[in-house]
């Protein structure tokens, strides 16, 4: 049997367990009380797992989607031409992209995989060559993501560490879950917190509950406790009071889509955290891989924000528990919001730190070109 492919360090939480022909996803809707893995047999299972939040977090969604299709084609009895194989994969990728709209990582991965298989099909003699190239590329995404996250953690912690001045250590607030559970391993914003802890520069992490789905209290708190990182959980509504108390030195959050000017879509509530940080003179950072950047849109106004079921607000436990809101009330439940670049101090990526080119915007295209 082939060895399991993952980039996580031993002992870290693993949301995606993959080996050729087998994919299991940690059911994050059941954390922190139960650790249950679901078998994913094909792209249809992958689509449902993403839509139902079994797997969530921008990088994890993209990788799980790509691997679910890798599982499907691994043992597929297919009699078509290489071109037929490429169009089979392209159609399934388009379907997977429809599972959740806001995170660009998924559509970015789908587009790269689609281009790859179309190119391979031009010279391949048999369909199997196209499927094999697809499986190899999807597996590479899993390994590359952990390396990118470790580099993000390094650049973020080095940047924050260089600003320690007369402070011995810093306390960092984060929102939502951006850790091992949201990625192939280590995490983005939570990766920066992990790197600060490794360097001995972290006083404490604060994590918000992140209502209504509680990714903070259920998942980030779980990861922080698991890694024995000193941490405190707060209600989302306690952010401004915590900042006023003077115990937070910086905010680091993840991203689902970053526009060319730096406007950033992330979990609902991120914008409120950024406004509070601005008011209190606290630096606000975004930590994300380059695959979270969408240069095709000039600003955050063009980002499609997913709206989720009213059940998440009407019932406890992110929609899975008992009714807690008055029957008959109407609900607005956007899953993400957009923080304007103006409120963001800098963006930590695996290629380094993107700094402001003007008070209101980042030159992200210029950064990516110079980092090549
Ligand atoms: O709805 P979710 O749980 O998928 O939202 C996740 C977030 O908003 C994360 O902050 C973002 O995807 C970055 S994960 C590294």
Features:
single chain, 372 residues, alpha/beta, Four Helix Bundle (Hemerythrin (Met), subunit A), Rossmann fold, 2 domains, seven-stranded mixed sheet, four-stranded mixed sheet, 14 strands, 16% strand, globular, binds 5-S-methyl-1-O-phosphono-5-thio-D-ribulose
3D structure, described in words:
The chain has 372 residues and is of the alpha/beta class. The longest helix has 36 residues, at 127-162. It is globular and about 65 Å long. It folds into 2 domains: 16-147, translation initiation factor eif-2b, domain 1 (Four Helix Bundle (Hemerythrin (Met), subunit A), Up-down Bundle), CATH 1.20.120; 153-371, Rossmann fold, CATH 3.40.50. The two termini are 38 Å apart. β4, α6 (189-199) and β5 (202-208) form a beta-alpha-beta unit. α2 packs parallel to α4, α3 runs antiparallel to α4 (104-123) and α5 crosses α6 (189-199). It has 11 helices and 14 strands. The relative contact order is 0.12. The model has no long low-confidence stretch (mean pLDDT 95). The chain has a 7-stranded mixed beta sheet, with helices on both faces. A 4-stranded mixed beta sheet has the order 11-8-9-12, sandwiched between helices.
* Strand order within the widest beta sheet: 6-5-4-7-10-13-14
Radius of gyration using CA atoms only: 20 Å
Task: Estimate the strand proportion.
Answer: 15-25%
- From the 3D coordinates, which CATH architecture of the largest domain would you assign? 3-Layer(aba) Sandwich
Helix content: 40-55%
CATH superfamily of the largest domain: Translation initiation factor eif-2b, domain 2
């Amino acid at each position: 049997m082939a060895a399991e492919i993952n980039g996580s360090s031993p002992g870290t939480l693993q949301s995606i367990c993959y080996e050729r022909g087998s994919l299991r996803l940690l059911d994050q809707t059941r954390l922190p009380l139960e650790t249950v893995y679901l078998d994913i047999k094909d792209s249809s299972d992958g689509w449902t797992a993403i839509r139902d939040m079994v797997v969530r977090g921008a990088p994890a969604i993209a990788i799980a989607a790509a691997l679910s299709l890798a599982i499907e084609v691994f043992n597929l009895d297919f009699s078509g031409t290489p071109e037929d194989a490429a169009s089979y994969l392209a159609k399934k990728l388009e379907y997977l992209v429809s599972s959740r709209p806001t995170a660009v990582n998924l559509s970015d991965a789908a587009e790269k995989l689609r281009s790859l298989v179309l190119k391979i099909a031009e010279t391949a003699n048999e369909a199997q060559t196209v499927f094999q190239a697809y499986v190899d590329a999807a597996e590479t995404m899993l390994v590359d993501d952990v390396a990118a996250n470790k580099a993000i953690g390094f650049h973020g912690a080095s940047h924050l560490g260089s600003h320690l001045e007369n402070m011995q250590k810093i306390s960092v607030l984060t929102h939502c879950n951006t850790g091992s559970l949201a990625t192939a391993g280590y995490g983005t914003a939570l990766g920066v917190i992990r790197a600060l802890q490794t360097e001995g520069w972290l006083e404490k992490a604060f994590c918000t509950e992140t209502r209504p789905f509680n990714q903070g209290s259920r998942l980030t708190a779980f990861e922080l406790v698991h890694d024995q990182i000193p941490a405190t959980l707060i209600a989302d509504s306690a952010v401004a009071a915590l900042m006023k108390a003077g115990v937070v030195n910086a905010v680091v959050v993840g991203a689902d889509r970053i526009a060319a000017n730096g406007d950033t879509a992330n979990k609902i509530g991120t914008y409120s955290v950024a406004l509070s940080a601005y008011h209190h003179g606290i630096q606000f950072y975004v930590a994300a891989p380059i695959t979270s950047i969408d240069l095709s849109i000039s600003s955050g106004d063009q980002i499609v924000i997913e709206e989720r079921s009213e059940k998440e607000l009407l019932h406890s436990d992110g929609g899975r528990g008992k009714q807690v809101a008055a029957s008959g009330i109407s609900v607005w439940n956007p899953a993400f919001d957009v923080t304007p670049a103006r409120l963001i101090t800098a963006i930590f990526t695996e290629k380094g730190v993107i700094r402001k080119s003007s008070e209101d915007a980042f030159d992200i295209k210029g950064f990516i070109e110079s980092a090549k």
